[in-house]
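Next comes a single protein record:
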Amino acid sequence: MKVGRITCQGLFNGNSCHLVIENLVLRCTKHSSWQASLPYASSEDDTSIIAGTNVVEPIDSEEAPEIPIFQSGQDVVEVKKDPSVLRTAFKFPMWLLGPSILLVTGIVPTLWLPLSSVFLGPNIAGLLSLVGLDCIFNMGAMLFFLMADAFGRPENNMFDLKNQVPVSYRFWNLAASTLGLVAPLALFFASHRGILQPQLSFIPFAVLLVPYLVLLSVQMLTEMLTWRWKSPVWLVAPVVYEGYRVLQLMRGLQLADEISAPGWMVQSLRGLVSWWVLVLGIQLMRVAWFAGLSFAKNSRYGVSDDVKQ
């Protein structure tokens, strides 16, 4: 279809008006006005100005996600309410059962079990007895983490938890654990080389600090696995282990008196207790920070971008 273009010049100052008509070709689709294709439909003619291929790409029905179709209102009620009813029925008992497991496996043996019935002196049997107590606590901690993960993970599991674990948080946890792991080993090598006097043999040192080192290594592995598996227990795992570690080092102070450990070893144990109490306090502050941030994010007021950063 040809359309003329009209231009007008010289309308002012009394000049005459010149009309120039040029031919302009406008290409249209073959569809009639009542058969016009939709804006998102594909067109055979790529030069069409009504329906082009770059407007919206056609949707392939084979690649489109499947949308469940419910035939009645009863089906919707069964899908949405049955899982939540089961979770609600087991939620409150698990809130009490999980901390009770930590109490029985960790706090009760450490505080109420007489060390004379477990600790047999600075020898291999006494070392294995202490490691066995810590293994019992670790089994309780694993059960607690499994229950917390089962009831803390969302049902749809559609969000990426990896983006919610800040790099600074990972760096701080790994740095604190690495320092707590390297410092006792450095003290032992210093004593072995004669820098610290009197020297401490391997068996008394192992009785005092090997259970601590083993459980600290287990904590570091557990934290990295929670980050890898995107488990919601990544925030409470350090708190559980560090709370028991303080009790573990206090037990070491009691054993240091029984095996007549040198003064530098007793002071080192006190320094480790102070360090982990500080780390535990920082972890609790971070738990409060992330909990408040999550509450503000889920509330109807939202959270500003400055707070997220």
User: Anything to note?
Assistant: The radius of gyration is 35 Å. The first strand starts at residue 2 and ends at 9. Confidence is low (pLDDT under 50) at residues 33-43, 48-52, 75-81, 301-309. Residues 92-295 form one domain.
